[in-house]
Amino acid sequence: MREMRVTGRGRLSVKPDRIRLILNLSDTKKDYEKVLKASAEMGAKLSELFAGCGFKEEDLKTTNFFVDAQYEGYNDKDGNWKQKFVGYRFEQSLKIEFPIDNDRLGKILYALSKSGVKTEFRIQYTVADQEKCRKELLDEAVKDAKEKAAVLAKAGGVKLGEIILIDYSFGKIDIYSEPVSLRSMKCYGAAECADNSFAMNITADDIQLDDTVTICYEMVQ
Questions:
Q1: Phi/psi of residue 211, each to 5°?
Q2: 3-state secondary structure string, the chain?
Q3: CATH number for 141
Q4: Following CA atoms 54, 58, 64, 65 in sequence, which dihedral angle do they give, to the nearest 10 degrees?
Q5: How many domains does the chain have?
Q6: Residue 75 falls within a domain, yes or no?
């Protein structure tokens, strides 16, 4: 049985409708209990901050958290390489999403800048219905594969038979873009979300998506 294998490419341009903030907290302490206390205190401050900006407690989600022992390398007096214990370090990643709103974003960033919490963060633009976008992208890829197969079959003087195989990785695509990069906002004092704000004038470009699917056809005379 003769076969024709064709790879179709789907391309989609999606207008973002949500902002996602990714926040990273970290600290190092000599004592394990103290580093856990530091992580709890920093997390509580962030929860209070976002509550002041109109969010519910469950809106702020932890995506990653771990505590690890830290060591530092050094040479002793004889020139031998050794390691000494530095302490325990925690790292925590959190995310929060909300509909695109530059005023609200400006208030959040101002609050972060005045919170006293040492944090690094990223601003991502995404879409609420990611599953719909993934399906549309896959549909475009399949259409492209079918069109290519029809052209090749006509040029080769053969006819397409049944589809034998569809090969697709089914990898989950996280749909977002990062047009803005603001990091390590160190700040002091109390956050006043209601009356203070950074002026944000951001219009995020459309998110460009790309995916492929391979279809194997039977070829008949």
A1: -155, 160
A2: CCEEEEEEEEEEEECCCEEEEEEEEEEEECCHHHHHHHHHHHHHHHHHHHHHCCCCHHHCEEEEEEEEEEEEEEECCCCCEEEEEEEEEEEEEEEEEEECCHHHHHHHHHHHHCCCCCEEEEEEEECCCHHHHHHHHHHHHHHHHHHHHHHHHHHHCCEEEEEEEEECCCCCCCCEEEEECCCCCCCCCCCCCCCCCCCCCCCCCCEEEEEEEEEEEEEEC
A3: 3.30.110.170
A4: 100
A5: 1
A6: no
Q: Which domain holds residue 175?
A: 3-69+88-220
N-term to C-term CA, the chain: 11
Q: Tell me which residue has tokens 């002026």.
A: 199
Domain assignment present for 79: no
pLDDT by position in tens, the chain (length 221): 789 999 999 999 999 999 999 999 999 999 999 999 999 999 999 999 999 999 999 999 999 999 999 999 888 888 889 899 999 999 999 999 999 999 899 899 888 888 888 888 899 999 999 999 999 999 999 999 999 999 999 998 889 999 999 999 877 788 999 887 654 344 433 444 445 777 777 888 999 999 999 999 998 87
Q: How many residues does the chain have?
A: 221
